[in-house]
């Protein structure tokens, strides 16, 4: 059974950092692409970043460039998203999503989703 479980969200002040984790089970990262999406209230869900089966990284959200970093731990079968220098506009529910092989921006091609973790950036 394929499962993705996010953790690491929370409340942080502007300029702070968080590290989100996505633990995968039922498949291995050697054959999968894992993407992070986020959805703020009243907005559409947007792709943030993705890492594919080969470890190649794609950044989709230009507003996060230089602040967010995706990485993976093959033995632990987890993908992390390091969030630095957080802004209030980064507040959203963050989801990880998985699919075979390669990364794509569109959410419809990801069959597997986690339940989401809330990130709130506020003073």
The helical percent reads under 10%
DSSP strand tally: 11
Number of contiguous helices: 0
* Unreliable parts: none
Radius of gyration: 13 Å
Label the structural class: mainly beta
- Averaged pLDDT: 96
Properties at a glance:
single chain, 123 residues, mainly beta, 7-stranded mixed sheet, 4-stranded antiparallel sheet, 11 strands, 50% strand, globular
Can you tell me about this structure?
There is one protein chain. It contains no helices and eleven strands. The chain has strands spanning 3-7, 10-12, 18-25, 32-39, 46-51, 57-59, 68-73, 78-83, 92-100, 112-113, 117-121. Strand 4 (32-39) and strand 5 form a beta hairpin. With 123 residues, it is mainly β. 33% of the residues are buried. The strands form two sheets. Strands 2, 4, 5, 6, 9, 10 and 11 form a seven-stranded mixed beta sheet that branches. A four-stranded antiparallel beta sheet has the order 1-3-8-7, with no helix packed on it. The radius of gyration is 13 Å and the shape is globular.
């Amino acid at each position: 059974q394929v499962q993705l479980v996010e953790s690491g969200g929370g409340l942080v002040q502007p300029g702070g950092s968080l590290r989100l984790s996505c633990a995968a089970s039922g498949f291995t990262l050697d054959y999968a692409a894992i993407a992070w999406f986020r959805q703020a209230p009243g907005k559409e869900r947007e792709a943030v970043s993705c890492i594919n089966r080969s470890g190649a990284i794609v950044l989709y959200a230009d507003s996060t460039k230089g602040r967010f970093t995706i990485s993976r731990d093959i033995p632990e079968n987890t993908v992390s998203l390091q969030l630095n220098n957080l802004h209030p506009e980064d507040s959203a529910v963050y989801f990880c999503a998985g699919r075979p092989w390669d990364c794509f921006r569109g959410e419809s091609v990801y069959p597997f989703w986690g339940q989401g973790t809330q990130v709130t950036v506020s003073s």
